């Protein structure tokens, strides 16, 4: 039985890597944002976060992850980019599986994030500065909580990256 949690900054590739790595390793994969959608009153994650607030979203994410973990045994679950700020969730993950931090360099991240518009956790009047502060804080938290930090480098060949992640998990007997 392996319970693997992929964490990382927004748009670092957690969900895509969870899907690809789960195929390589013969595991189930899921995404906490997708699990949460059933509880967001028809809103997108971004809309819910913006209208109901960070705390309401963090409570919802914790609940759906807890329910998933209680009903599944052998999986890779990708978490939302802000999971690092949810201490209750991160403590729960630590007690119930292996936390894998998929790290990408800060300079590679912001252009990818902004392709989808300015997210609510950034200051629209200081996008770059606010992203830098959020990135540094979340990077510190993810590093602190993780059982394994994998530096993925710039975005590139997804299958090759997934293979590298799968090998790292096998080498450490996490799967």
Task: Describe the model.
The chain has one domain (3-171): Rossmann fold, CATH 3.40.50. The protein is built from 8 helices and 5 strands. The protein has helices spanning 14-25, 32-36, 45-52, 54-71, 87-96, 106-114, 127-145, 158-171; strands at residues 3-7, 28-31, 75-78, 98-103, 148-151. Strands 2-3-1-4-5 form a 5-stranded parallel β-sheet, with helices on both faces. It is globular, with a radius of gyration of 15 Å.
**CATH class designation:** Alpha Beta
Helix content: 40-55%
Structural class: alpha/beta
Number of domains: 1
> How would a crystallographer describe the biggest sheet?
5 strands, parallel
CATH homologous superfamily title: P-loop containing nucleotide triphosphate hydrolases
Average pLDDT over all residues: 95
CATH architecture call: 3-Layer(aba) Sandwich
Distance between the termini: 7 Å
Number of strands: 5
Globally, the shape reads globular
Low-pLDDT windows of residues: none
CATH topology: Rossmann fold
Give the number of helices: 8
Strand arrangement within the widest β-sheet reads 2-3-1-4-5
Evaluate the radius of gyration.
Answer: 15 Å
Q: Return the string of H and E elements.
A: EHEHHHEHEHHEH
What percentage of amino acids are in beta strands?
Answer: 5-15%
Secondary-structure blueprint of this entry?
Elements (H helix, E strand, L loop, with lengths): L2 E5 L6 H12 L2 E4 H5 L8 H8 L1 H18 L3 E4 L8 H10 L1 E6 L2 H9 L12 H19 L2 E4 L6 H14 L4
Parallel strand pairs: 1-3, 1-4, 2-3, 4-5
Helix pairs in contact: 1-8, 3-4, 4-5
């Amino acid at each position: 039985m392996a319970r693997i949690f992929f964490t990382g900054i927004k748009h670092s590739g957690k969900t895509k890597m969870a899907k690809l790595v789960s195929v390589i390793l013969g595991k189930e994969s899921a995404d906490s944002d997708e699990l949460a959608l059933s509880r967001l009153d028809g809103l997108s994650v971004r809309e819910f976060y913006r209208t109901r607030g960070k705390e309401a979203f963090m409570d919802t994410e914790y609940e759906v992850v807890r329910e998933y973990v209680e009903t599944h045994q052998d999986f890779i679950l990708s978490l939302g980019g802000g999971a690092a700020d949810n201490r209750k969730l991160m403590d729960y993950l630590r007690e119930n599986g292996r936390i894998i931090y998929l790290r990408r360099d800060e300079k590679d991240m912001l252009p990818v994030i902004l392709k989808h518009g300015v997210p609510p956790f950034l200051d629209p009047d200081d996008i770059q500065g606010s992203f830098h502060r959020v990135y540094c804080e979340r990077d510190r938290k993810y590093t602190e909580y993780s059982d394994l930090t994998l530096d993925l480098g710039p975005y590139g060949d997804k299958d090759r990256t997934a293979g590298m992640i799968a090998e790292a998990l096998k080498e450490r007997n996490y799967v």
